[in-house]
Amino acid sequence: MARNKPIPRSQRISFNRAEKISRNSPGAKDDVKNLSVGIMDMDSAIMYYFNEVIKPDVEVNEEKVKVPCIYASPERWLSISKQGYLRDKKRKIIVPLIVFKRTGMSRDDQMPIDKLDANDPKINYSFQKKFTQHNRYDKFSVLQNITPGREYYNVAMPDYVQLTYEFTIWTSYIDQMNQIVEKINYSDGAYWGEPGKMRFRTRIDSFSDSSQIDGERLIKTTFSMTLNGYLVPEVFNNKTTTQKFLTPKKIVLKESADTTIVDKTGKVVLAPNSATDDGSSNTKDIFSINISNGLVFEEGTGVTLSNNGSSFDGSSPLTQEFSIGQSVGTSDNVQFNSLTASSVQVGTGTTVIEDGNISSSAGTFQITGSTIVTGSLNVSGSVEVTGSLIADISVTQVTTKSIDFSGGSNEFGDSSDDSHEFTGSVDITGSLKLNGYSVDEISNDTSLTDASQTALVTEYVLANTTLSSSISTDDTAYLRKNFYKASAGISGSSTASFTAVTASAPTGLTSTSENDFVFFVNGQYMEHDAISIEQKNSTEFLLKVDTDSIGYELESDDEILGIGKFNS
Description:
The chain is mainly beta. 12% of the residues lie in helices and 30% in strands. The longest helix is centred in the first third of the chain and has 16 residues, at 39-54.
C-alpha cells in the first residue's frame, strides 16, 4: 500500500491551534461554540420580537385574532408596491397583516472600532470559562504544586452597523390599527431579540397614515425602524474569530537559561546555556562599551556649549550644557534687534498684531501718546475725540450732515427730503423761515389788532375768536343733528318709505344729501353709491335703491334703518 512521504521538519508550517475552526484536542472536548453574528440574526431578532413579545392581535367578531408578521422577499415587496396590498392564493386581500423589509445598512460612526488588522484582529473581548473537567483541582495537583488552569476565550471586536427597515400594516378598521400601533410604539427603544441570544436596540421613527379606498376599504400605516447591530463572522481568512488560551498549571525554574538575563544595574547575570552557583563567573557589565568614532556636539549660531567640540565615546561620562545669549523665561526681559513673525501676541491673549491688522479681545486698543499716520486711516466704527480734531481738509460722506460756520450759523441737510429730529425743547431767538415765509411771533392776542403777516395765532385765539363769532347757533344745531328712523313700508323691490323729514342746511353750508345718512337693511350696511333719497312731501321720506348695483331686491318683510340728519 502506497503512503505519502512525511514532509521534512524544516518545511513544516507551525500554526496556532486556537486560530483553527475546531479547537478540540485529543482526550478533551471543547464545547464552547465559535461566536458569530450576522445580518440574518438581526432579521430573526425582529421576527421573534414581533411574534413572541409584542404579539400583535386584533378583535374580529368578538374573537382575538393574531396578526401575522412576515418578511417580504424582493418579489413579494414588488407586488405589494404595485397593488398596495397583499393577496393570498385565492386572490383575497390579507388583513390584518404586518410586512417588513430591510432597506439598507450603514456603519455606526458613533461606535468606531479599529481592529488594526482585519486578517488578524488584535483587539478582542475576553471572557473566562470558570470550570471544566480538564481543569479540576484535586489533592494530587496540590502535592505536585499544580494550580488550576484557566480557559480564556478571545472574541474579535465586531463591526457596529445600523440596519434600516420599512414596515407596512394593513387592517380593516381604524380601531384595529390603533391597537397594533400602540403595542409597537410602546416597544420603541427596547432591545429586541431572543432570550439567551444576541439582542439589538431598535428605534422607531414616526408612523405615517397611508389609508386608501380603492374598491375595498383598507386602513394602512407605514413606519421605518433603525436597528443598532453588530457583525462578527465565525471564520475570516481561514481563522476563527473565537480563540482559546490556557494558563500554565505549573512553572519550573532552572539555573540554565534560554535567554540572556540582565539585572537592574545592566550586568549580565546568566548567559544562555550557563549554569553557575553564585553567578560571579558569568557576570558582565554590558554598558561598558567603547566606540571608535565618538559623538561630537559643536556650537551653532546663538548657541554655546560648555564642552564645545568634545568627543563622547562611552568610556567616561561627558556633560554638555546648552545655552543662548540671554534668559528667555516667562518673567525675563527678552531683547531682539528685529523680529519677523506671522503674528505677535501681546499680554494674556488680549492684543494680537498681524500683517496689516491689530486686534484686541478686550474690544478696545489704547494708544498713550502721539500717533502719526502717514497714509490713509479708515475707521469702520465710531470715532470719539475728547480733545481737538484739527484737519486741513475734512470730507464726510453720510446720509445727513451738520456744518458749523465760523459766524455761528448752521446748515442741516442739503435737500428738502432730509429729516431732522429734536428731542426736548427748542429755544429760537429771532425769526423762523418756512418755505420762504418768515415767522417772528406766536401771538396770543384775541383781538387780532396787529393784523401781522409774520405772526402765528394760538389755539386760545381760535377758541375766542373764530369758533365763537363765525359759527351761529343754527349751524351748530344742524351739525349736531343725528337721528334714526325705521322704514314704514316697502314699495316694489327698490323703494322704502319713512315717516320723516330731512333737516335743511343753513345758509353757507352744503345742502343735505344721501351722504348725510347711513342706511342698514336687516343689520347690513347699504353702500352709498347704490342709493338715493327723496323728500316726497312734508311727511314722507323715500329711500331708492339701485338693485343692479347693490346686488339684491327689497322685500316686504325687510327692516330698514336710517341714521342721519332728520328733523326730530
